[in-house]
Amino acid sequence: MRHIEYKEIDENVYQETLDNGLEVFIIQKSGYNKKFVTYTTKYGSIDNHFKVNGKEHQVPDGIAHFLEHKMFEKEDGDVFDLFAKGGANANAFTSYDRTSYLFSTTEDFYKNLTLLMDMVEKPYFTEETVEREIGIINEEIKMYQDNPGYRLYFDTIGQMYDKLPVKIDIAGTLPSISEITKDHLYLCHDTFYHPSNMVLIMVGDFDIDEAMDFVKDHQDARGNIKPLDVKRLLPYEQRDVVKPKHNLYLDVAETKVMLGFKNEKIDSDKERLTRDLAMMFGLDMVFGEQSDYYYEMLEQGIIDDSFNFAHNEEKDFAHILMTTQTDDPEKFTHTILEIIEDIKNKDIFEEDKLINQKREVLGDYLSSLNSPEYIANQYTKYHLDGYDLYQLPEIIEMITVDDIKNYIFDALDPEYMVECVLQPEDEKVSADD
């Protein structure tokens, strides 16, 4: 077992890769009453095309999310109820590239840990339960289809991405969900829920040897699990956008606009994290609530307090999204483009501002390390992305003003921008007339 000590922030991590390939991390938080666990597979919504031991498979969209739902249902009932009886709060989520099962508890830790591992490792699917779940998820999809914010987001993503499955909702579509069978579920579970494709992270006050031995004994009892040769088959995605402009008409009272800036993906883990942090600092300097540009747009009525922006950096894609409610979407878009051009000729990326930003981010980061939930979820995320949560301060300190300039000027390229305008349905009638 490897012990990693981070003396500067007084954190200790114990790590071991078990014989079956499962990675286990124990993050010691002495004196904490609550324990928090995540059990995560590197399998998400974009993994719909893959090879297993040389055989190619194309499965319906939404199957990772569908599988997440079904893992809580066993022959003898709903596992949620068992967690509740054991004094634990359990949950799960699916993203583009991972599915995570988690629980927190202050009592009966090993009983709940066994329940979590058994739940994730032992699937139970029948034709009847799959058919019932299809109906449940179909209703969930229909509900989201009626949500204006959801529609605006996915229409914008669809304007940017041509082939990459990121443009498809994590829950799938009504047609794709109806195609899912129990055989699909068993195939994907056997393929991606293999211990060598998973990571177990435990945060709390532990007897380290006892906790690690408990997990080892549980995994050893599973017997010999053959390793699989799995190859994900993601389509190549060029940077060019699909459709620069799009109007969406729904039953809404106000007009909203979303801009998307598509970026190239980065293969290097460290550079990807550097760009992500640099973009966070840079976008805040330009569009944050303390910036002159934000204040001017607000004063002129170009934006309101709904205005927000975000940079999304993943292994297989990267983009910026900006959105606001506005009476004049054309003026908003025009103003954003003017700002992008303006910052190329002004020294708004200043060292003093960056130093203050770093202090604020590091302060929030250190405060968050008091939360077992934050540590477990973020350690999982950064580990699977090829980073180390506890080395984040080092990367933050290394970010320079030049890094910000280099990344933000490339990212905010109007050539790779899309505009999606959500308008009231009656405006479509007026436009048609």
TrEMBL record:
Spans through the membrane: none
Pfam families per UniProt: Peptidase_M16 (PF00675), Peptidase_M16_C (PF05193)
Coiled coil residues, start to end: none
Protein name according to UniProt: Predicted Zn-dependent peptidase
Segments forming domain Peptidase M16 N-terminal: 61-148
Molecular function via GO: metal ion binding
Peptidase M16 C-terminal domain boundaries: 180-351
